[in-house]
Write a structure and sequence with these properties.
alpha/beta; eight-stranded parallel β-sheet; TIM Barrel
Length: about 280
């Protein structure tokens, strides 16, 4: 069986008051469809599901910031071969954060080189104006920052109306309560464990209580099976257990993957193993 991550199956909201995605569509597009105690990965292969239905599955989502930009097609193919669950594109506009990175044309050019889902982390001041271009480029999920959105409900509804999944990010100084009233509009909350804008920064361990708070908010809303918790920043072998134990099930890693002397495949498997052990503890 082949699961095409470009086919975003299921009903999606076109109004900011509707839930943005059905569970079945979320699971297929995310590459983690549950099937009688098994799941289908992003390539359609059936593997044993280690988690009960309401317990999120651990996913490793690499950032391509440390990749060789002259070989991005080959780089995303290598990440897929290494066993990643999705690929995150760190989109920076030089205003919300200091750096400039990937335009939609670059992502579109890389799209044909991998079938795993793409997500765009929009570290930008104008996510509404840019959203359609990144969906057209092949990103199944768009992550917007609370701090950049004047009308967050409207922005999340707009993303859903484009046929993509909406997620929301929190900078380190932003409290978890900022997303309390939009959990029904997203399929993921990203808790930044560094200040956005640069790769290779040191993990801020004091974000772990906020990760726990977000996870508890999701559970209290009855959305554990629909809303994931992602962390991004400083994730590596020495920090991933703390983030996972706090409740993060999608873990973004960049520098740590590319620095592993045994290669990308070993790095992905090692991080996944450490996170699974901590999350289930």
């Amino acid at each position: 069986m082949h699961v095409d991550p470009h086919d975003l199956a299921g009903e999606r909201a076109v109004d900011e008051h509707d839930a943005p995605i059905r569970e079945s569509a979320e699971c297929v597009a995310a590459g983690r469809h549950l099937l009688g105690g098994h799941h289908l990965d992003a390539h359609g292969s059936q593997t044993t599901n280690q988690y009960p239905h309401l317990v999120p599955r651990i996913e490793i989502a690499p950032s391509v910031l440390p990749a060789d930009f002259a070989r991005l097609g080959d780089e995303v193919a290598a990440l897929q071969d290494a066993g990643v669950d999705r690929i995150q594109w760190d989109v920076m506009d030089g205003q919300f954060v200091p750096n400039l990175t990937f335009g939609p044309a670059v992502i579109a050019a890389a799209r044909a080189h991998a079938s795993v889902p793409f997500e765009a982390h929009l570290m930008v001041l104008t996510p509404d104006a840019m959203a359609a271009d990144y969906v057209d480029a092949g990103c199944q999920r768009l992550i917007v920052h609370v701090e950049a959105c004047q009308h967050l409900h409207r922005t999340l509804g707009h993303i859903a109306s484009l046929g993509a999944r909406a997620a929301v990010a929190l900078n380190p100084s932003t409290p978890a309560s900022a997303v309390a009233h939009v959990l029904d509009l997203v399929d993921m909350v990203l808790v930044m464990t560094v200040n956005p804008g640069f790769g290779g920064q040191q993990y801020i361990a004091t974000m772990e209580p906020k990760i726990r708070e977000v996870r508890s908010m999701i559970a209290a809303a009855g959305l554990t099976d629909r809303v994931d918790v992602e962390v991004d920043g400083g994730i590596g072998p020495s920090t991933i257990a703390g983030a996972a134990a706090a409740g993060a099930n999608i873990l973004v890693a960049g520098t740590a993957l590319y620095r592993d002397p045994e290669g990308l495949g070993h790095a992905v498997a090692d991080l996944r193993s450490r996170a699974e052990a901590a999350f289930q503890a």
